[in-house]
Design goal:
Layout: H1 6-21, H2 37-111, H3 118-149, E1 158-161, H4 162-179, E2 183-188, E3 196-199, H5 201-217, E4 223-231, E5 234-241, H6 275-285, E6 290-295, E7 299-307, H7 319-323, E8 334-339, H8 343-353, E9 357-363, H9 366-375, E10 381-385, H10 393-403, E11 408-413, H11 420-427, E12 431-434, H12 441-449
Parallel strand pairs: 2-4, 8-9, 8-10, 10-11, 11-12
Antiparallel strand pairs: 1-3, 4-5, 5-7, 6-7
The protein binds adenosine-5'-diphosphate (ADP).
Length: 452
């Protein structure tokens, strides 16, 4: 080092300063034994580098604290939001579940009264039925929301006839709309050929139903119009009403869970504020967007898009789709096995099938179901509950299929979770029914498979 000239040392100093300028604070200049002015300068530069390193470290730490603070702030907002949601959830649910329960329990106890005229009985029963439906809607919405949030919701694409869906929804809502003194129109800009697309049929259907249902619910005069047209790479749907409308400050929030534009306590409308949150989630899962334009007292117009994918062949044509249009041609001499561990559920199935069957047998678990099928190879239909003690329905179906390929097995479950249906079909069931089984749904499903 002693041999280095003064100008070389100055060059070293300059290089060190350049490195520091580039952000490298690890350099340190050597101090010679000369103890001269250049050593003093080198020492000064080293101290300066240390100071800079130190202040840069402090700055970095400060930035990090700022980030942590911002994250904490975000978490706080989220926690407060989820707290608000929880309170809204509890307030809404408590009301939305207790009200129909009140109807069910109250009118069921009134029905016990002796000597009640028949028309009065029918009236009470219809209230019980409506309350049950309302309760089921809420439960279904809650299950949908939790499926969406837990990532359990998946897309199942199949051939979908959009025009048919629109016509069906129009026919479905027309009586209710006309009863309110209003009119409902549909307007499809899709040719018959264009109307066949590949998408998740159930979800498109649910989105449209939700929007039209709201249009009917929140309108008391005028018209409802809905439809669809091609717009570039997308199909664009609209649902337009001349109802109560939504104020500007609520327009963005109504797609949030539990949010209602009307003041909840004063609102005369039923609902938990979940429909649009589910609808939005479905639209986004399908790769589209949803938006709304509205003016209080004038009406609302909801729009949504989904990617337009023309149906390109029969590759997704599943047996369930072919049978969709089959009619009820089932005879009244069916031999049916009911595998069901819930007494009331079994009784309900028995009552639904009594007139149609000449043999009805009831077992309460999977083991007994397998045994019954082995001993009675003449059963036409097995109604298989999935959740049963000893042996569950899936395992029972697997075992039955080892020796009987022809009996029609229909799974029935109250789980209604994603993949249940697929799993049931995979183990060998012919079809699947989600509880509660209402109306003639059971007969329709049996009719799809039994033709004599
Ligand atoms: P719900 O109808 O069960 O309250 P939604 O999530 O379907 O829940 O709708 C959220 C809110 O948006 C409703 O409470 C209502 O205030 C408002 N809204 C939805 N659709 C319409 C409509 N067509 N006209 C006026 N308001 C609507």
């Amino acid at each position: 080092m002693n041999s280095i000239s003064g100008s070389e040392r100055i060059t070293q100093f300059i290089e060190a300063i350049m490195l520091v300028a580039k952000g490298d604070y690890s350099v340190q200049l050597e101090i010679t034994e000369k103890n001269d002015m250049l050593d003093a300068l080198a020492m000064g530069i080293n101290i300066m580098i240390d100071e800079i390193r130190h202040s840069v470290e402090i700055e970095l730490q400060y930035e990090r604290y700022k980030e942590i603070n911002a994250e904490l702030e975000k978490a706080k907002v989220k926690a407060e939001e989820s707290d608000r949601f929880k309170s809204a959830f509890l307030a809404n649910m408590s009301h939305e579940i207790r009200t129909p329960m009140n109807g069910i329990l109250g009118f069921a106890s009134l029905l016990k009264k002796q000597g009640l005229p028949y028309d009065q009985q029918l009236k009470y029963l219809s209230i019980i039925e409506k309350s049950g439906e309302r309760m089921l809607n809420i439960i279904n919405d809650l299950i949908e929301i939790s499926k969406i949030e837990s990532g359990q919701m998946s897309i199942t694409r199949s051939r979908t006839n959009i025009n048919e869906q629109i016509e069906f929804i129009h026919a479905f809502f027309r009586p209710e709309v006309e009863k309110k003194g209003m009119r409902i129109f549909y307007n499809s800009g899709l040719s018959e050929k264009d109307a066949f697309v590949e998408t998740d049929r159930e979800k498109v259907y649910a989105i449209l139903i939700n929007l039209v249902k709201n249009a009917v619910k929140y309108s008391h005069k005028g018209t409802i119009e809905f439809g669809c047209q091609k717009s570039g790479e997308f199909l664009e749907f609209f649902v337009k009403d001349t109802g109560i409308g939504i104020s500007r400050d609520k327009l963005n929030d109504i797609f949030e869970r539990f949010v209602q534009a009307e003041d909840y306590l004063r609102s005369k409308y039923e609902g938990a504020g979940l429909g649009l949150a589910i609808t939005k989630a479905y639209v986004e899962m399908l790769g589209g967007k949803i938006w709304v334009e509205s003016e209080p007292d004038k009406g609302s117009q909801f729009h949504f898009t989904i990617p337009y994918k023309p149906f390109s062949g029969l590759k997704n044509f599943s047996p369930a789709m072919i049978s969709e249009s089959s009619v009820d041609g089932i005879p009244n001499n069916l031999k049916v096995l009911i595998a069901e561990d819930d007494r009331e559920a079994a009784m309900l199935l028995r009552l639904m099938l009594e007139r149609r069957s000449k043999k009805l047998m009831h077992v309460v678990n999977g083991t007994e179901a397998v045994e019954a099928c082995r001993n009675h190879p003449d059963f036409d239909v097995v109604l298989m509950d999935i959740k049963m003690s000893e042996m569950d329905g899936y395992e029972a179906v697997r075992q039955i299929r080892e020796f009987n390929q022809s009996v029609i097995i229909i799974a029935q479950t109250a789980f209604a979770m994603a993949g249940e249906r697929e799993r049931a079909l995979e183990v060998g069931c012919n079809d699947y029914l989600a509880k509660p089984i209402v109306g003639d749904e059971l007969i329709k499903v049996i009719g799809r498979h039994i033709r004599f």
